[in-house]
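Exercise 7.
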Amino acid sequence: MTGYAAASAESPRGRVSLELRTVNARFLDLQFRVAEELRALEPLLREAIVARLARGKVDCRFFYNESGAQVAARLDPAALARLRALSEEAKKAFPEAGALRIGDVLRWPGVTAEPPIDEAALRDIAGDLCRRALDELVAARAREGAKLAASIGERTAAMRARIDEVKPFIPQAVAAYRAKLGERLREALGSAEEERMRAEVALFAAKSDVDEELERLVVHLSEVERVLKHGGAAGKRLDFIAQELNREANTLAAKAASQPIADCAIELKLLIEQVREQVQNIE
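Solution. The predicted structure, written as tokens, is:
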């Protein structure tokens, strides 16, 4: 399922942001793009995401905003003292050299130092950002899931209606098939025994009876409706049921003894394929 969510907050070292993007995938695939300064927090983010999401390719981006608050640097007295001592020694060796300018002092390595990172505070901020972003993402995916469930429900209802339409044709189709097969057997076997011919007709007619396939289709459709009503993570279960529906539709097409039944099987296969495409997007 697709979705996007973002959250940001101020931290001791500037404004930090977290973005989550998801696209369809059969399994959970996590990709992280984390600023080097925040790399230690990646396991925390991974644990939080795995606890909330089960499927999808998830791209997590965690970074400091370029336009965020600047880190308040401070001067290191010890480094300044060392630089002053070096400057005085240099003046003795080069009396004609000019004095150090402020810019030269500030650029000297070690003179300015950033405040130490409060790891505990940063972890709390990262955890809060991840919870907020996941709440937003899960809500967006739930809305998409509701639409997909409605779409699958419509196709399930269409399949039920098509099965109900074709059921009255089954006895007539089987009887017509039996009569047609008997006539062909009489022509082919000529003087064959009547009892044997009836047995052959009954055997082949039984193979054309699709009542069992239609019943199994109805059972599988009921299971789809039950799963959709129950909610929760249902993608893998629905994918399996869709495969079973497709198997029964194939058998129905192979055993079709009349054109209405064959047309029904084709329409069912089209609807099932549409369901299978939608199921790939459901967690």
